[in-house]
């Protein structure tokens, strides 16, 4: 299994996914107050937990994804040595985690076409519905002139699911 692979999963499958893939880095995107278990396979400094709600527009009492989240996500991804896979999880493995995998792949493999990457994401995860706010913020930070947003909009909402099925996205396509 290639180390340059991003594995996406729901919270309920994070330990299983980390163990199955041999990952040593973990990105968790969960709402404030959602308990994230400490995994023995992941050193504390190799686990980034970003607290945000899965919302596209600001709502009272909720933390929307923002530039600070995306910048931390990008710094964490760029520090990944790619020797082992990276696991990305959110609560359901459908929205924040799929958006983050898309963002990381776009940042670390800038030669990949945004539309091809979005179509690959859809093929790998029929339920993927990447958080549009995360994608829009990343599109601006990565200076993609709206191409990331348009590509994600083009694949549309994913199939209805309680939680996504874990999948791996290779950086090299």
Any chance you could write out the topology, listing elements then pairs?
Elements: E1 5-10, H1 14-21, E2 25-30, E3 47-51, H2 67-78, E4 86-90, H3 96-108, H4 114-124, H5 132-141, H6 147-155, E5 167-170
Give a verbal description of the structure:
Helices cover 36% and strands 15% of the residues. The chain is built from six helices and five strands. With 173 residues, the protein is of the alpha/beta class. It has helices spanning 14-21, 67-78, 96-108, 114-124, 132-141, 147-155, and strands at 5-10, 25-30, 47-51, 86-90, 167-170. A five-stranded mixed sheet has the order 3-2-4-1-5, sandwiched between helices. The longest helix is centred in the middle third of the chain and has 13 residues, at 96-108.
Defining traits:
single chain, 173 residues, alpha/beta, five-stranded mixed sheet, 5 strands, 15% strand, globular
In short:
36% of the residues lie in helices and 15% in strands. It has 173 residues and is of the alpha/beta class.
Oligomeric organization of the protein chains: single chain
Structural class: alpha/beta
Estimated radius of gyration: 14 Å
Number of contiguous helices: 6
Q: Order the strands across the largest sheet as they lie in space.
A: 3-2-4-1-5
C-alpha termini separation = 14 Å
Mean pLDDT: 95
The biggest sheet amounts to: 5 strands, mixed
Silhouette: globular
Element-by-element helix/strand order:
EHEEHEHHHHE
Number of strands: 5
> What is the helix content?
25-40%
Question: Strand percentage, roughly?
Answer: 15-25%
């Amino acid at each position: 299994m290639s180390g340059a692979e991003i594995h996406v999963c729901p919270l309920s499958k994070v330990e299983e996914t980390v163990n199955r893939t041999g990952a040593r880095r973990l990105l968790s995107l969960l709402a404030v107050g959602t308990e994230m278990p400490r995994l023995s396979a992941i050193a504390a400094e190799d686990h980034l937990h970003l607290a945000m709600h899965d919302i596209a527009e600001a709502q009272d009492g909720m933390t929307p994804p923002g530039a600070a989240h995306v910048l931390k996500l990008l710094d964490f991804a760029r520090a990944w040595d790619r020797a082992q896979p990276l696991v990305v999880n959110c609560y359901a493995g459908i929205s924040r985690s799929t958006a983050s995998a898309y963002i990381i792949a776009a940042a670390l493999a800038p030669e990949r076409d945004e539309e091809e990457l979005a179509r690959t994401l859809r093929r790998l995860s029929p339920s993927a519905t990447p958080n549009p706010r995360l994608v829009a913020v990343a599109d601006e930070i990565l200076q993609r002139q709206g191409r990331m947003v348009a590509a994600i909009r083009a694949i549309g909402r994913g199939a209805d699911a309680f939680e996504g099925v874990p999948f791996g996205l290779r950086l090299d396509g």
